[in-house]
Amino acid sequence: MPKRTSGHFTYANWEEREVGPSERYPRLGHASVTNTFTGGIEATDTTCEYTIAYGTETTGTFTGMEVLAGRLDGREGTFVVEERGSFDADGTVCTFEVVFGTGTGELAGLRGTGSFTARHGEPSCAYAFAYDLG
To answer: Which residues have C-beta within 8 Å of that of residue 80, sequence separation ≥ 6?
Structure first.
């Protein structure tokens, strides 16, 4: 049975730039993001890189990788998650999965999946994460 944990994260920084032609849609963007996680995952100043496909000004999909260094339910280490999601004028829905083999320290062998739903304008976002350590 996987263990379950939850908490919140906040965007500490979001820097986005256009990639390719920008005068019409669809278009691509790239975002470098820094987050801070609290709760079951404790990680400050994460490193996250997104590729974003905009269908319109307010709708699209994204994929990304995020490195989390800190603690997971008290166990120290680092791991990477792959994120996939979509967004519209109301907010963002995302699922994420631990990239196999990226767990270090007390998180070696980590496997897991999670999700979050972010509403525009809210300062933090709740996440849920189910995992096991192999």
So the answer is: 65, 66, 67, 68, 98, 99, 102
Amino acid letter, residue 24? R
Q: Looking up tokens 């005068």, which residue turns up?
A: 23
Cα 123 to its chain centre, rounded Å, is 15
Angstrom distance (rounded) from CA 67 to CA 47: 5
Predicted TM-score (pTM) of the model is 0.92
Whether 30 contacts 52, CB under 8 Å: yes
3-state DSSP assignment of residue 31: strand
Residue written as token pair 């994929």 = 63
Q: Which residues contact residue 24 at a Cβ distance below 8 angstroms, ignoring those fewer than 6 apart? A: none
Report the alpha-carbon distance of residue 39 to residue 77 in Å, rounded.
15
Task: Provide block-wise average pLDDT over 10 residues at a time, the chain (134 residues).
Answer: 94 90 86 96 96 94 98 98 96 96 98 95 93 92
Which residue's structure tokens are 């509403």?
119
For residue 26, cis peptide bond before it (omega within 30 degrees of 0):
yes
d(CA 108, CA 52): 30
